[in-house]
Amino acid sequence: MSKKIVERVQQLKGKIKIPGDKSISHRAVMFGAIANGKTTVEGFLPGEDCLSTISCFRKLGIEIKQEEDRVTVFGKGWNGLSEASEILDVGNSGTTTRLMLGILATRPFHSVVIGDDSIAKRPMARVTEPLRKMGAKIDGRGKGNFTPLAIRGGQTKGITYTSPVASAQVKSAILLAGLQSEGITTVREPHKSRDHTERMLKAFGVELQEDGLTVSVVGGQELASQHVVVPGDISSAAFFLVAGAIVENSEITLTNVGINETRTGIIDVLLKMGAKLQLTNEKVINEEKMADLTIRTSELQGIEISGEIIPRLIDEIPIIAVLATQANGTTVIKDAEELKVKETNRIDTVVSQLKTLGANIEATDDGMIIHGPTPLIGGKVASFGDHRIGMAMAIAGLVSSAQVEIEDIEAIDVSYPTFFDHIQELI
Ligand SMILES: O=C(O)C1=C[C@@H](OP(=O)(O)O)[C@@H](O)[C@H](O)C1
Ligand SMILES: C=C(OP(=O)(O)O)C(=O)O
Predict the structure, then answer these.
(1) Most exposed: 142, 251, 387, 390, by fewest CB within 10 Å?
(2) Ramachandran region of residue 98, left (φ > 0), alpha (ψ -120 to 50) or beta?
(3) In this structure, how many other beta carbons lie within 10 angstroms of the beta carbon of residue 44?
């Protein structure tokens, strides 16, 4: 476990190309693997999570070439996947685990799925239960709720499923299984979660029906290989949007950032808090919108964040908490229980680590309350193996009066291996 020391800076200035979107990179590899023909991906995120997806699909018999952000997937259709002779190791990646289970649910062979200590604590019944209802045979710890999981797919039937949580991973797993199941599969969710699966499946030639919070697919569909251009990840951009807003004398431009509406809760929050944020060069590629984002040092107001916006910014809450420590007044984050089942319990880790740095923050059952502005005073914190906690602490370090020492910093490689290089470029 290595440590990193971050010190206060006088300004952040310049332009950064944000690395590829993690959600879209996973899907490009997985959909390429089940499609017929050669899928090429540009702008792929070479972070550990997406590399876990590549490694699992290689074990399932798919040839995949990867060189930095360029990937070629030699898909052979659904039947081109074959039984792996090894365990499928998903590392730290919830997205790999849940979407891959959806694909394996209709494959007539045995697979074993395992991950790291964090994955072993994350609930999988949210996908294994509906996939079992469709006909897949799944077993694992806690009656199939935790890894290691064993799955034998086969003849599955479509279902109509109302998910208790707004989760793109749940929605995607069921829709992927539905593509090779008998009849129609319908998923309904309480709020709209990210819709990259729907958009990319359409680009791969799949027909699906969308009606508000409901998505349906008819079984028996094949995918046709594509060229995928991956936009920059707004969840990675979020760290620099916040840094630009709270570090004095700053102006940062982030290029080619994905601004799919199911992901832009962070932009809505920044604007509502009063941040000086501008969007330019908007364009659409592969059904996904992108833009350049420019942020300047801003005077900020605390706000309430709750309800339908939560799934649109769920991964950004650790860095929004840092932002709120520097805003005038109180920020209340509600309806965010899902934070408890991420790489760490992010309510606990955000609150405990920011308290160490001098923030006035308290945990609630479904979120947190932050009173600002508070000068952050530095100290020793840890990522607890959670990339987003590590990066949030580093940005807090840029505005702290004394240095911030962050333990277990390599976790950041999961989603943003060049994070510290990018900070350095802006100083
Ligand atoms: O589908 C995806 O790519 C993701 C969905 C979200 O998880 P949930 O589906 O659990 O909400 C998000 O937190 C995760 O980082 C990526
Ligand atoms: C929750 C996250 O990812 P995953 O669920 O894929 O592990 C994340 O990136 O913050």
Answers:
(1) 142
(2) alpha
(3) 27
* Ligand 1 center to 87 CA (angstroms): 23
Q: Which of 89, 315, 386, 408 is catalytic?
A: 315
Average confidence (pLDDT) over 36-56: 98
Q: Are 245 and 8 in contact (CB under 8 A)?
A: no
Q: At what angle do helices 22-34 and 196-203 cross, to 10 degrees?
A: 40
pTM of the model: 0.98
Reported as half-sphere exposure (CB side, CA atoms, 13 A), residue 17 has a value of: 7
- Backbone dihedral angles phi then psi of residue 196, each to the nearest 5 degrees: -65, -35
Q: Which residues contribute to the annotated binding site for 3-phosphoshikimate? A: 22-23, 27, 167, 169, 315, 342
**pLDDT tens per residue, range 87-110:** 999 999 999 999 999 999 999 999
CATH architecture of 3-20+231-426: Alpha-beta prism (3.65)
* Domains 3-20+231-426 and 22-203+225-229 agree in fold: yes
Q: In this structure, what is the dihedral angle of CA atoms 258, 262, 265, 268, given to the nearest 10 degrees? A: 80
Cβ-count burial 288-312 (b if 16+ within 10 Å, e if not): bbbbbbbbebbebebbebeeebbbb
Rounded to two decimals, the ipTM of the complex is 0.99
Pairing of strands 379-382, 404-407: parallel
* Ligand 2 atom nearest residue 414's Cα: 9
Exposure string over 262-276, b if 16+ CB within 10 A, otherwise e = bbbbbbebbeebebb
Q: Which residues contact 153 (CB under 8 A, 6 or more apart)?
A: 104, 105, 106, 107, 108, 109, 136, 137
The span from the first CA to the last CA of the chain, in angstroms, equals 26
Confidence check: pLDDT of 31 > 90: yes
- Report the helix count and the strand count for the chain, using DSSP H and E: 13, 24
Going from N- to C-terminal start, the domains of the chain cover: 3-20+231-426, 22-203+225-229
Which pairing describes strands 35-42 and 227-229: parallel, antiparallel, or unpaired?
Answer: parallel
Whole-number Å distance between alpha carbons of 66 and 95: 19
- Ligand 1 center to residue 311 CA distance, Å? 9
pLDDT for 240 beyond 90: yes
